[in-house]
Task: structure prediction
Amino acid sequence: MDFKELGESLSQLRRSQKISQQTLADHIGVSRATINTLENGRPGDVGVRKVIKIVDYLGYELSLREKSAFPTFEELRGDG
Result:
């Protein structure tokens, strides 16, 4: 997953929960511009701590997995 994919995923999660960028920003203590920058795949000044705060607020967590030489089923279908 690259930064653009991460941003798109977070945007989808936020919208599916009917949370505005401004509401999310207010609740986690960052600017709406920071949320927008991340969701549009531009790293800007978005550090890991901010990403973790956003992910946590949306009810998820980050996890690492070993990179596979083979595509996932979702990647083959075009979903991931």
Notes: The chain has one domain: 1-80.
